[in-house]
Amino acid sequence: xxxxxxxxxxxxxxxxxxxxxxxxxxxxxxxxxxxxxxxxxxxxxxxxxxxxxxxxxxxxxxxxxxxxxxxxxxxxxxxxxxxxxxxxxxxxxxxxxxxxxxxxxxxxxxxxxxxxxxxxxxxxxxxxxxxxxxxxxxxxxxxxxxxxxxxxxxxxxxxxxxxxxxxxxxxxxxxxxxxxxxxxxxxxxxxxxxxxxxxxxxxxxxxxxxxxxxxxxxxxxxxxxxxxxxxxxxxxxxxxxxxxxxxxxxxxxxxxxxxxxxxxxxxxxxxxxxxxxxxxxxxxxxxxxxxxxxxxx
Length: 297
What we know:
The protein has 297 residues and is an alpha+beta fold. The chain folds into three domains: 12-70 and 206-233, Pseudouridine synthase (2-Layer Sandwich); 81-192, 2-Layer Sandwich (Pseudouridine synthase), CATH 3.30.2350.10; 240-293, Roll (Archaeosine Trna-guanine Transglycosylase, Chain: A, domain 4), CATH 2.30.130.10. Helices cover 21% and strands 35% of the residues. It contains eight helices and 18 strands. The strands form four sheets. Strands 1, 2, 3, 4, 7, 10, 11, 12 and 13 form a nine-stranded mixed sheet that branches. Strands 14-16-17-18-15 form a five-stranded mixed sheet. The protein is globular and about 70 Å long. It starts with 11 loop residues before the first strand and ends with a strand.
């Protein structure tokens, strides 16, 4: 006899250390079941072959997940030179092999070309859509379409290790950066081809992998202890200034009405006492406009 799952309201942020071999959505659903959360979402996907930090949002925290999509990311990656695959990573089919003849000095020189603002062509095996269809669906049918180069920024690019035909990199980059494309482009510059063999995300904005938990660790905990891994919804807004409203102004704000305050224009997290009310934006005339408002606790 099947027992119907009982869902409940859970509000908070979970920093999950996603394992390799699992899609981001599968990881989200597994975590959601462990918390019996009625509403859940993630703030940006990781490929199945990638591991690392996947911030998950439950309940009211999902209202702020879009803000994390624009955050900078940090990855640690391993590249294999001399082999190019159709997907740009180890999950793909080998399409070219070449000898590796360069040394560390040539690799360092090549890396310097990718630091700062660059143009990057998204891979065919990506979730970007063309005429409503994800590119990876077209790629699986052997169809390749032209993709427009996009501007991204590599803030930092460290060479952690290099030995024969492999290297390890640490990449701090802007949103929209594809590390698979970076690997392929680096292989092109070095005239031997390359693909990604390991990818681990270690930071998303101010969030760090050191504070994350695995699904296995969560599953081994009692329900009360499991809840201790949930962070408050305003974890995703910590980079924004805070505004505190009195009770009357707070009631106006949560009902979608602007509030007049003194402050610098821009987005801010809004509180009344210790309670987070939501995300607001102060205009140049001193009006605090509600942008996303939390429901009652």
